[in-house]
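Query form — protein LysR family transcriptional regulator

QUESTION: What is the three-dimensional structure of this chain?
INPUT:
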Amino acid sequence: MSLDLDALKVFVRVAELRSFTQAAQQLGMPKARASSHVQKLEAELGTELLQRSTRVVRATPEGEQLLKRAPGLLAEAEEIATLFRAGRALRGRVRVELPVRVACEYVIPRLPELLARHPQLQVEICASDRIVAALREGRDLVLRVGPVGEPGLVGRRIGEVPMMNCVSPSYLRQHGMPRTLEDLREHLIVHYATDAVPSFEYFDGKAYTELPMRSAVTVDNIEAYVAACVAGLGIVQVPRAEQEQLANKLVEVLPEFTARPVPISLLHTHGRAVPRRVRAVMTWLLEVLQPMVGEFVTSP
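ANSWER: The structure tokens for LysR family transcriptional regulator are given below.
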């Protein structure tokens, strides 16, 4: 018995997203076609792979077994196909999620050379500092700055960024210069929305710990975070890579009490079955990001 690989790909995406609608949108096909693919696969295997309801789609025990083995099957099929199309042009769309600054300063300026090399390739860049679920949103590649907590992402850490504590001159005029951790009890911090509570992270000699602090403002992206600091609304903990850009706006404080370095990872959402176009763009991104890694980032 031979498996329909297209149907298998659809099943994997539906099972991972638990939605025919979202899977069909990401795969660029009508929902009815996605459903037909899965029904055909179930008929070939003689078993139900997905439990369907009006609210959610879940893999059956048999579906779970197939889901564990499917990436290996698809990866092997992709590898075999690559042997016979190595000389063919890359085609199709690759969706890439990048932090705004990385996209604007490093990747987009070099994008013309990639598209000149592969004119049938399409690159969709989502430039955002908000972390979304990469698999659910249909991303192929993501650059994560910070811990990676989302399951299903595969790749490697390419470095880590040292941190620094900053305030604005106007904040110092109003609140004074913090010189000790005890001083921070009388100060404010800009609260980043992804953090559970407003706090100041530092190394206590044994481990990184957090000191709870008061905050007057909460933001959800790095531009607003820095802008709030410039406006005098509190202390921020930002990558030292921003030092040159912020030199005329902010002042470093408490340099001996910095937060843990932030890891930078380049990841994909395809498990072991990585399409050739995605692998090629990932390799190109590693090359493009080398100046950033060399200039701002310490290798782990």
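ADDITIONAL NOTE: The mean pLDDT is 85.
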